Amino acid sequence: MNPTNKITGKSWTGLLGTTRKMRILSASALFLAVCAFGAAGVAPLAPDASDLPVKSIAQDLELPNLADQIAALQQKPQQFIHEEKVRSGDSLASLLSRLGVDDQDAARFIKSDRVAKGVMQLKTGKRVQAKTDQDGQMQWLRATVVDAQDNPVKTISITRKDDKFVAQETAPKLERRVEMRARTITNSLYSATDANTDGGKLPDTIVAQIIEMFSTSIDFRSDLKRGDHFNVVYETFWQDGEMVRTGRILAGEFVNRGVTYQSVWFEDPLSKAGGGYYTLDGKALKKAFLKSPLEFSRISSGFSMRSHPISGSWKAHKGIDFAAALGTPIRASGDGVIEFKGVSGGYGNMVVIKHWAKYSTAYAHMSRFPQGLRKGSKISQGDIIGYVGSTGWSTGAHLHYEFRVNNEARDPNALAVIVQAPLTSAELARFKNSATDMTHRFALLRPGIKTTTLASR
Question: Which keywords appear in this protein's UniProt record, sorted alphabetically (predicted)?
């Protein structure tokens, strides 16, 4: 038989399958296929966009009358705001002239009013703003007074009220910003900090803080190597769009010879303890006490038995004497609270600071105290608490310094190094939130840099 006939001669039910279930499934699939082809055949085709009719519409629009607007503006009183910087040799008249002020009443008021006179003592380079009307009559004038370190102290505002002027002093309003910088050592630390690779050089005060922060781990004179890099997050304070001062470093990371050193500033808002720098796992970096309360001095008498210079008796000297010139600033050796300030017999003018736990320090024979220092004042390490003198039982200008444990004088040089007070469990939990934020900032500052070994603490 012809092979073709063998195939065509079979029934359609045989082609659909041998069992009833297979025939039902095959028939359903065939039906769906026929429906799909039918839908495709009858579906309308979308028209070609180029064949669509195009209709143009033209309409005249009425333009506004600019002459009327200009006339209306000219009828309103015009006011102008000027800003100038104080120049060397400036007089009040020359400064007001550059500010567009032509107002004799304003000039007389500034010269005669106690507060307004501060404008005449502004430093060269400081900014002054003034608002005037179209005739040069002054509406207000503002200027900021700074101290010897160029930090804003107060803002002087002079305002016209009817035909009179009112001057007042207010605390300067500063905007706090957080800035981040990343640098790589190619020559020296200072050449890296002076580079403008990311839009600006690092302020000198921040560079000094970097050195102080990492100097216990890195010798910046001999340890730096080409390729070392560091990241720093710090505060800046701005007024009217101008940076007026820098704040403290909030976090720092320094990679030296493949070893990473990190620190984060933390000051717990809920406790009275002073702030300090910590590793990312919450260990204090700062030593609790300075080695010396004076920056530049020498030890003239140590913690030992000696012949008293006045009585001549042989007795224990329960402190360390630092020889220094009269008036040398005395620094608090650690964070704490003023427990005593005043005259104490042979100690003369004396300050006692209560530190955390069982520690306290005493400073004697001072010539004077700084203004505002009183019992109960909160003190941070390095704050000026007095000046070297020769009051009490003293034969010459020096500082008598005592380190006390449970109110008993001890030789600070014989004690093991004391680190800053550890964080409590509650403080540690709050610290971790701050540390996490700084860790993210570090990650942004070092894209593509391989992870290095963390310094062990």
Answer: Hydrolase, Metal-binding, Metalloprotease, Protease, Zinc
Give the domain range for residue 366: 298-414
Same structural domain for residues 278 and 427?
A: yes
Q: What is the CATH number of the domain that holds 347?
A: 2.70.70.10
445 within a domain of the structure (yes/no): yes
What are the tens digits of pLDDT across the range 382-399? 899 999 999 988 888 999
pLDDT recorded at residue 457: 42
Same domain, 134 and 218: no
Asked if residue 76 has pLDDT above 70, the reply is yes
**Three-class HEC string of the chain:** CCHHHHHHCCCHHHHHCCCHHHHHHHHHHHHHHHHHHHHHHHCCCCCCHHHCCCCCCCCCCCCCCHHHHHHHHHHCCCEEEEEEECCCCCCHHHHHHHCCCCCHHHHHHHHHCCCHHHHHHCCCCCEEEEEEECCCCEEEEEEEEECCCCCEEEEEEEEEECCEEEEEEECCCCEEEEEEEEEECCCCHHHHHHCCCCCCCCCHHHHHHHHHHHCCCCCCCCCCCCCCEEEEEEEEEEECCEEEEEEEEEEEEEEECCEEEEEEEECCCCCCCCCEEECCCCCECCECCCCCCCCCCEEEECCEEEECCCCCCEEEECCEEEECCCCCEEECCCCEEEEEEEECHHHCEEEEEECCCCEEEEEEEEEECCCCCCCCCEECCCCEEEEEECCCCCCCCEEEEEEEECCEEECHHHCCCCECCCCCHHHHHHHHHHHHHHHHHHHHHCCCCCCCEECCC
What are the pLDDT digits (tens) for 167-220? 999 988 889 999 999 999 998 888 898 887 777 789 999 998 998 788 767 878
Confirm whether 44 is domain-assigned: no
pTM: 0.55
Q: Domain for residue 48, yes or no?
A: no
Residue 153 above 90 pLDDT? no
- Same domain for 323 and 258, yes or no, is no
